[in-house]
Amino acid sequence: MQCLLCGSETKLFFTYEARLGQQYYQCSGCSSVQLHPDFYVTREEEKARYLTHNNDVHDPGYQKFVSPIVNGILEDYEPSHKGLDFGSGTGPVIAKMLRDRSYSITTYDPFFSPDEDALNSTYDYIACCEVAEHFHQPKEEFTRLKHLLRPGGSLYLKTDLYDATIDFAGWRYKDDETHTFIYHADAFRWIKEKVGFSELKIMPDLIVLRK
Question: Which of 70, 69, 37, 65 is nearest to 53 (CA)?
Fold first, then answer.
């Protein structure tokens, strides 16, 4: 198969025997690891999996988990700026935390907040927390996110990155069957250059792409 992000050739990387022999391929270009589309769950199964998440917006642990994104936005933007929580899920905690500080932020989620009008506007910043690893068409999704940003706007992401030091067989991140595309840092460098962002910052708990 060809990489679903950069189009480079891939090779079989891991077979998950405990889960019906699911096959993961690694890209020769951007080094990302991706589940073969033949093994994707159905849309109904995907939604059911998300409904098992305990995303209580008042949970201090959940708020702490998303705080790198929230703090990045608070540092870079004012309440007068317009934001989007893309893939806001069953509990839009980022939107809640920012609205508590009088920030103007819209939510969009294809399952739980499917307001297509939200995708017909542009934003100063976009939050994308634990969402990118679910993309079935990552190149198209990052292109869409860039188009949703105003000039100079920022995309704040949280997703676990793969690198060669990780024991993939024992890595819990692959165990979520809805995690179909797992990025390497090289993938975000490719996204910056080829999708056309002007700046990229990769930090331990936060990735920022600036238009």
Answer: 65
